[in-house]
Amino acid sequence: MTTILEVEQLKTRFRTDNGVVSVVDGVDFSIHAGETLGIVGESGCGKSVTSLSIMRLLPPNGKIEGEIRFNGKNILDLTEKEMQSVRGNEIAMIFQEPMTSLNPLHTVGRQIEEAIILHMKLDKAEAKKRAISLLKAVGMPRAEEIYEEFPHQLSGGMRQRVMIAMAMGCNPKLIIADEPTTALDVTIQAQILDLMREVKEKTGTSIMLITHDLGVVAEMCDRVIVMYAGQVVEETDVDTLFENPKHPYTIGLMNSIPELDDEREYLDTIPGTVPLPHQMPKGCRFAPRCSQAMAICHEKPPELLQLNGHKCRCWLYAEEGEQQ
Amino acid sequence: MTPLLEVKGLQQYFPIKSGFLKKTTGYVKAVDGIDLKVYPGETLGIVGESGCGKSTTGRTILRLLEPTAGEVWFDGKDLAKLSKEEMRRMRKDLQMIFQDPYASLNPRMTIKQILMESLMVHKIGTTAERERIIEEIIEVVGLRKEHLNRHPHDFSGGQRQRIGIARALVVKPKLIIADEPVSALDVSIQSQVLNLLKDLKKEFNLTLMFISHDLSVVKHLCDRIAVMYLGRVVEIADKRTLFENPSHPYTRALLSAVPVAKPRQKRERILLQGDLPSPANPPSGCTFHPRCPYATEICKTKAPSLSDIGAGQLVSCHLVQSGQLK
Hints:
The complex is a heterodimer. By secondary structure, chain A is α/β, with parallel strands linked by helices. Chain A has helices at residues 47-55, 80-86, 98-101, 108-120, 124-137, 143-147, 156-168, 186-203, 214-220, 238-243, 248-255, 295-299, 318-323; strands at residues 3-16, 19-32, 36-40, 62-70, 73-74, 91-94, 174-178, 206-211, 223-228, 231-237, 305-306, 311-312.
């Protein structure tokens, strides 16, 4: 299996009024060709900043360290010009808010064509043809008419289809989708997830799917990373994650969600809140909220342990990790 | 049992004004004839997707919006006919919890001032009594007395929502309308607030109208559930009946669309075609017919009405009522 993206010891920091704040702190993962990798976590865990770091789209006060190898090349070494030929061409992104990420002043067609003309060197007529066929591919009715329309004339679900058409424009090897269905209603979400699965099957692109919704993860992903406070705390394939979650945070997260076939009177909770980036605990970052925390958890930060195809950052598995 | 709240034929139309003279050229029918009953001590859930009118329904019942037509019977009075002053006094018994805990608390007031305001407006207790009530309520919602002198920005989203709940509870209302109270929160915090609401329901025997788009949350908390689509209620049933035997084609599609956190479980999914039509120009007949996989001729011309199909399950669908759709 070829690996298309390898992230190694990614650290993203921001200069703020409260000093330097480390939002992503030593994240490692890789994405294979044709795979959907899910990144799960709650707000502030660094999942979106990880994706923006890969695209090198951080605001000026952000600084990236580590290595991000895409097709073997470290994209942090690329010049801004070289990076432009990666963005939208080899790696495309789908954002959460289809309303704010489309330009309200340009027609749908023009926005889809922009990247196609830039990267694929097509002329206007060919680009238009491709844009319309992309609109049809994402299941838009009246594709020729919608090509001429503006974003405000479309519904939320249709706008997200336009975003997906734009992302597919140059046949990227990797699509990063940051909460692509969070702003949508469930029946529309079901349509969009279905479309994304179809796109993946047809084109074989890899998808990095960032979400807080474990239901979406279960339906879409092959492998999953769980993030907490800027670090990866667990990584495994999707079946193992749901059948045998290891990290107390992952378990807590799963038990705190009400499900449709749930008969529990009370939900389990994770007490407290996520630590702020400039007030990280000394030991394990989850220790203050963890019901199984031991003395060592408050003292020493745990490593991401390798446990037989399952990675977990937790002292509970230290012995098991050593044996393997 | 007599209902605590009975809504009859409630309508909320927003005029569309256009042209230089701002003439009314049409109406957005946000709520288009709703009948609901809420019994004492129960939690009625209202679910539906964005634009179905669920929030507008809540706001219209509380007269935060003036209803276009219809009756809202509460405690023997028609809220829709009360004067502004009478309604203001009535709000002691009808409180609301809002969705956005960041926007619904005044950032310049301390928590104590926020809670005190409700008591002062409704002239409850003496100053000393008010202090005692506030200290009590802040602990009921899981915060501490020390928190009272802080401002909203000192709190996390989950804590702010607890303050919002305390503000609603402090005047001991008979009915609380909660509009998406947990949707702005992360799941681990959401479960804390849901458990709190469950406790409060028991402790204060609260009657709650819980508006949400999240079916799993509604199922967890509510006793009866009303499903709305395009300004109308399409199905009402008790929780168990609705989830075990959803009847309206829209309810079926909605339930099947919820992603389930079980990767190996393959489910039959009903994918609805298209989007929600505009409430300014709703389809003829049954408003769901353009997206309904079972629609027949009658659905295009005649609007169905809610009727009992047994066990208190009310469904607004020709096909279910005539037995064509099982």
